[in-house]
Amino acid sequence: MTTSNSTASELVIAAVGAHPRLKSALGTALRWAEAETGLPEDVTSLDDSVARRIRRAVGSLRPTLATTAIRVVWAADFTDLPRAAARAVTVNRDGTAESVRRQLLVIAVCDSSDGPAVRLLEDAVDHVVATLPAGLELEGFFYDVLVYTRTLPSHTHVTGRFRIRLVPEDTSVWSADLISALADFAEVQLATRTPRTTPRLPSALAIGLHAFLGYRAGSTWGLGSYPGSVTAKFISDLEGLAQSTGNPVLRSPNEHGLASGSMARWILDEAPFIISATSGMVDEFRGTLANMKYANAQGFLLFADVRGRWFPFQGTIHEHENSDEVFRARGLDVVHLRRPYELRADLVRAFQAYDRNAGPVVLMVSPSVLAFTDPEFRPESITSLLDPPAGREQPGGSAFAAANHSEEVLALLNSRSVRLLWQCGRMSTDESELCHDLARLCGAALCDSLTRPGTVSKYRNGRVVGEYLGSLGMYGYSSQIHRYLHSAGQLRPREDQWLFFLKSRAPESATPFSAATLEKRLCTVQVNKDPRHLAPFVTIPVKSKLLPFMRWISANLCVSEDVLTMRRNAIELARESAEPIAGLPVLPMEMSFFLQHLNQILEELIITAGYEYTSVIDVGRGGASAIRNIVRTGPGFSGWYGRSLMGDAISAVPALATSRPGHVLAFVGDAAWMLVPDVIPTLVQQMCLDKVSMRGNLSVFRLINGSHSLVNTWAETRRHTSPNSNTMVLSLVGENSEHDYGPVKVRHHVIRDPDSMRAIDMRSLLQQPETIDIYSVLLAHDNACDGLGAQGENDWRTVLD
Questions:
Q1: Residue 94: its pLDDT value, please?
Q2: Residue 588: is the preceding peptide bond cis (ω within 30°)?
Q3: Helices (H), 450-583
Q4: Torsion of CA 422, 428, 434, 437, to 10 degrees
Q5: How many other CB atoms are found less than 10 A from the CB of residue 149?
Q6: CA 694, CA 673: separation in Å to the nearest integer?
Q7: Contact 226, 276 (CB under 8 A)
Q8: Is the pTM of this model over 0.85?
Q9: What tens digit of pLDDT does each residue of 238-262 get?
């Protein structure tokens, strides 16, 4: 069917599916479109609002269809579509397609449009785009693919790149929707666009950043972005490049979550990052910017930079505001990329700032640079400008002997009859191996920290680490460590014990002791390569990288037998005398009662099944208690790191669950849970629509005790005052549920009492891959010590019988 015999273009409508009413609805819509004047009576008989919509759609179509033919082809399904569409293309005798511009509008009827189906539909459309015969144009996006479904999913709602509709019950409404789709298509695709003669080039900036990070970090770096109109094409291009090289594309409900996830991946795996945000979103990153700087996390934070306008929409750099000051106040390097012809030079400056390893580099990018493309801008043209990556310094044993205080530390380890407690920061594989060997050889107790849980742990490679005594921190403080350092509730004599901070800045959160106590009542050693991070209260500061220091110690270690025996006996006595008191099965349950039950399950799985997991600890009473009570099998991510921002840890879960191997266990209190967006839809989206696998099980323990519990405890035990309603947290708990979303199962378990706790087969659930288990655990607020500080270890629950 055509509207003109002499046409320069042709609209091909591909109808996919065999719905019995589609042919009638489409035929009516085309009849309306062909009407040269007025409209048939069946339009005027419709509801006034529907009739007005049809009149306006037909009126907008007439100028375009005066020179455009319409042809309809039918296909049984998407696999049949390329063959069916080929019938619409006239082929000349020489085998070339007739030089008529033909654009394709796909109208399909499918069974379902839930998350997995949307992904399958997008794959099908991509296949059609790639296999269409020459002479047909289809991009496969909102205006040229319209999908009708017989059912809508009951538990999800998501749109793909194209429009999705439920099949209308009224055929005339269906026809009205189809004529509206024709009008949209004509206005956007036919009237305003010109045929593309050359492939669309990716953003030059995307090419440059992708090439640089690939050169520096291979496939480990990750891309996170939050959509914005100015950055949309740049993000799309960079995502495509990242996916082509196997780099993870990370999702989050907001920019803060992207920062939290990127920081967690840096802390755990030293994985660099690019985070793209649109204009005006500087403040959305919260204090996590400071934490990223504190961690020296390497990567780029990219912001669209709109300048030169009077109070610009979402602008952060103009006459009355300058977000550069925010970044510079945090010590971050800022590079402005304003003009396309200066892009190469600006990128070199950005790359040099990255290589200084001083935290994220902020890129403020103008719209013209974001949109800039150049066929000469290729990866090799970027890497040719770069210096080779700085090689890692190879530590030498003999060269270290001259380091400050090394002989003093060696003498202490070899011959002093003192207790040793080593708190370990983040360690490489070689550092970890050597640290464990040295601790065993010289009788040092090991501990991790509130901010770096799992750097050392009770289990390593499935075996108990005899030197490990738990965590040391402002909160999450181990009773075993308390027994080791104290006698009759008081610190042992200063000269009898030494606390080592290995690869640590010895921050306030790392111990329950004040700076004055650390200086006057404890002997301390700190090993840190940066002189700025050597604490003023430390007894023996050692400016050194950890690995060469430990190698030198190892080469010269010779601990006397009696000293070694004394130290090992002290560790064993602390382990045996600090068994936690069992919680009571009261309702609501005590925090320690539930966590001890969970810990028993984890220890059994570790011993019998080789279970390993990554811990994610959020800020609050629940997180602190989890650090104290839950056994770990390796390094985890703690929201207590840096500024101790509630919500950072749970916000990092999507990045960790989809990029790290194995299982993930997250512990978050009710206050932190309510502070940030729900991350579960983001995870489902990544697995269903982005086809990102989650190789293990994700278990999120939402520990609900109805209050800002740490604040309550402080008020009730230290200030002896009653907290007010400001510290109350009301949670809507919900019911048990289970839903399947394509490859991922999401379950919600409500644990209200010991019976419901024991009724759940947690041993099995914790090991089920590609499954998200959320446990809402109803608990009581109490002021039990539970590692909330050194003073609390002297209450009646922990005093020895």
A1: 55
A2: yes
A3: 479-485, 515-520, 546-556, 561-576
A4: 70
A5: 20
A6: 22
A7: yes
A8: yes
A9: 999 999 999 999 999 999 999 999 9
